[in-house]
Specification:
By secondary structure, the protein is of the alpha/beta class. It has a single domain, classed as TIM Barrel (Alpha-Beta Barrel). About 45% of the residues lie in helices and about 15% in strands. The chain has 12 helices and 10 strands. The protein has an 8-stranded parallel beta barrel, surrounded by 4 helices. The chain has a two-stranded antiparallel ribbon with strand order 4-5. α5 links the parallel β7 and β8. α9 runs antiparallel to α12. Bound molecules: NADP nicotinamide-adenine-dinucleotide phosphate. NADP nicotinamide-adenine-dinucleotide phosphate binds next to β10.
Length: about 325
Amino acid sequence: MNTSIPLQTHLPQASRLVLGCMGLGGGWDQTPIGEADIAKAHAAVEAALEIGITLFDHADIYTRGKAEQCMGELFKRQPSLRQRLLLQSKCGIRFADASGPGRYDLSAEHIARSVDGILQRLQIETMEILMLHRPDPLMQADEVAAAFSRLRAAGKVQHLAVSNMQAAQMRQLSASLDQPLLANQLEMSLGKLDWLEAGSCFNDPQLRQQAYALNWPETLAYCQAHHVQLQAWGSLAKGLFSGAALPKGDDAAASAVRRCAELVQELAHAHQVSREGIVLAWLMKHPAGIQPVIGSSDPARIHACADALKIELSREDWYRLYLAARGQALP
Ligand SMILES: NC(=O)c1ccc[n+]([C@@H]2O[C@H](COP(=O)([O-])OP(=O)(O)OC[C@H]3O[C@@H](n4cnc5c(N)ncnc54)[C@H](OP(=O)(O)O)[C@@H]3O)[C@@H](O)[C@H]2O)c1
């Protein structure tokens, strides 16, 4: 599959798959990074580059900044590496500290301070995409826009994007920006279906109530209409359908996962690709041109993900997977 995606309008080198770097840097504790962490990051980055991945997804909070630090070490040791890839990182989530509880913070001051921290840890001068990690109820769109303008003018950040935002929040933010929002990163996978359910299961009263409240259909439609790149975090559903331990028990949810995992295996066999290939190809079949963000740091699994680029699922197989994952026929 080699169709272009919205992000390539602004960043032509952007790959269809993105490497999520949340698994790099060791644990989410204060232990400093060591050689083993740097070696693990190196192996993951090399594997990703080998399969054509050019976009790497970070956040200032991942392993408390250590994921970025590991990547920064790689740039320091091999400066030419920076030219071979595009970087996005996120800010806006704060851990509890002396000044307050765990909170979201999209104030201009926090955004500016976060970007300086990201660039310093990554040991770079500029990054391609700054992503606002979560909506902050106290966000003021004009303030965010002014903060981004200053960062852009200083050459620290080239583009702005969001994550976990609904259409109304994107619309509000866009009205203050003089640059387009490039992407929205949301949780989407065979294990997380509400982004589809909300749009198609309109005659199921319970779903309608839950899903329309979340406004998914409008968010997908907004991104498609405005050429905002949709990125899927959690795209491998933590391996639930591609080899990780399956849930036991007779309840409907566990049975659906087991049936869907079985079907993924059958399709992988039929197409002669990995199970990861099927799981990701299912997301990539969606007409929005979704970019799966894969959170693996295992080189073998990263290589297995490349199979997603080799196939396009038929409509019928796409629906078979969808129905297996939701555990029942469509209404
Ligand atoms: N914007 C947001 O709010 C947000 C939230 C969460 C994550 N993210 C981003 O999205 C990326 C991906 O998300 P994610 O890490 O939550 O989800 P993911 O890609 O669904 O899962 C990756 C995790 O699942 C494990 N895994 C995958 N297949 C497996 C299998 N067959 N058996 C056992 N374990 C398996 C991987 O382990 P191995 O490393 O061993 O392969 C890794 O720990 C992250 O790295 C991050 O960049 C963004």
